[in-house]
Design brief:
The chain is mainly beta. It has one domain. The protein has strands at about 10-15, 20, 30, 35-40, 45, 50-55, 75-80, 85-90, 100, 105, 115-125, 135-145, 160-165, 175, 180-190, 195-210, 215, 220-230, 235-240. The strands form six sheets. Strands 2, 3, 6, 7, 8 and 11 form a six-stranded antiparallel β-sheet that branches. The chain has a five-stranded antiparallel β-sheet with strand order 12-18-13-16-15, with no helix packed on it. The chain has a two-stranded antiparallel sheet with strand order 1-19. A hairpin with a 7-residue loop joins strand 15 and strand 16.
């Protein structure tokens, strides 16, 4: 009698990350000198979801405050800048849920006209840990003058990547590379119009091995930052 041999081998299944911008109105202030803060009212923050706050600003002497007006601690993830602009990134992982948070960021601008762009992203399907420390695997920055802004991360482990760029154009005017979703392509000319322009751009891929997020864009002076976000553990499914 013939015997049938069954081969057993594991297939690894990763958690599914989702990335959602939870701010909408009032995300950018572009009305000239004297504006130092942006407030988002009644933002719902939920237990065991990672929140990433990114702040774009034309300050040269300040990275601004971490978000205040909330019951949770926002830790610095990354700060990058050049001689005209800043990108600050913060994270929090709530231990309870609320619908009454009023996150606020504030800057000291010095002599420059005042621009702030302030956005919050909710990320699910991530590894939990102390205030998101286990979810954010790496944060890398870059800056240059030239076309196609980019950031190079270390090799990825099938994770999510979210990247942020700022340049000296009114409307950043970029296009995402294949696989990435453009979320913000914005900008403004601050008052007076001849003194300063600021574009900002956000794109992400919720599951990728691409460690060089690149925006197709004409030459500009730019800064950029990118985060790798780890999906919640993997489990072995036995297939026979």
């Amino acid at each position: 009698m013939k015997k049938l041999l069954f081969l057993l081998f594991p297939v690894f299944s990763y958690g599914q990350i989702t990335i959602t911008k939870v701010t909408s109105s009032g995300e950018a202030t572009c009305s000239g000198a004297g504006i130092v803060s942006v407030v988002h009212n009644n933002i719902a923050l939920t237990t065991d979801k990672l929140y990433i706050a990114v702040v774009f600003a034309d300050s040269t002497n300040s990275y601004g405050t971490a978000p205040t007006g909330t019951s949770f601690t926002w830790d610095i993830v990354s700060q990058s800048g050049n001689n005209t602009r800043r990108i600050s990134i913060y994270k929090t992982l709530p231990t309870s849920s609320t619908t009454t948070e009023d996150p606020t960021v504030t800057f000291s601008f010095g002599s420059f006209p005042n621009f702030i762009g302030f956005h919050i992203y909710e990320i699910t399907g991530i590894v939990l840990g102390n205030n998101g420390n286990d979810a954010v695997i790496q944060a890398v920055t870059n800056s240059a003058t030239g076309a196609d802004p980019n950031v190079t991360l270390a090799a990825l482990g099938r994770s999510a990547v979210i990247s942020f760029f700022s340049n000296d154009r009114d409307i950043f005017a970029g296009a995402p590379e294949s696989g990435f979703t453009e979320n913000i392509d914005n900008g403004c000319t601050t008052y007076p119009a001849s003194s300063f322009i600021n574009g900002h751009y956000v794109m992400y891929d919720a599951s990728t091995n691409d460690n060089t997020p690149t925006v197709t864009s004409a030459s500009s002076t730019w800064i950029g930052a990118a985060l790798e976000i780890r999906a919640s553990g993997r489990r072995a499914v036995i297939i026979n």
